Amino acid sequence: MSSSLALPFDVRLMNFTTAVLVSALLLAGVAAGLWWVLRNPMFTIGQITVTGDTQHISRAGLRASVEPRLAGNFFTLDLGAVQAAFQQVPWVRKATVRREFPNRLAVQLHEYVPVAQWGEGDTHLVDGQGKVFEVSDFDGADSELPTLLGPEGQAPAVLAMYRALEPLLAPLDTTIDSLELEPRGHWHANLASGAAIELGQAPSRCWRSG
Question: What are the φ and ψ backbone dihedral angles of 128, each rounded to 5 degrees?
Fold first, then answer.
């Protein structure tokens, strides 16, 4: 018959003290490693490589929008904040940001592709999905894009009507210069030939006036 003997108190105290010291040393090592990572200039972002669509995007514009958001290093940088900063730059539809060890960022940009102007000014354009975006370097006077007008939030509907009407006008050898959706739901179009089309609330009720 076997029996177990309890360890003396001083031995148990020594084992406990040893375990506490080892844990403390491990935690101190981890803390020192984190401090080294956070402070080591090796991991400071030193290069940003931008690829993709950059036809309308200037380096100065990117720098002004993004640099204030580059807080942290390779490990602590908030990629979501950097992505949002890139996507605030005019013409940028989408930005994809990823880290490249040890101190680089790779950014791929996708520009908006305008299919029409929106409103009477030269600062708002419409892309192929009907999304309105704002730019500051667009010269509407030299553009061949049609002008779409309508209440706020109705750009997709106006673009859809424009696309529906264009094939109907092709046999007449003319195009739409401007198309407007009025607040009460009526449509008005000006053609490149100089003629105008007034539409009711349905495309089937239309007539031409000189």
Answer: -65, -15
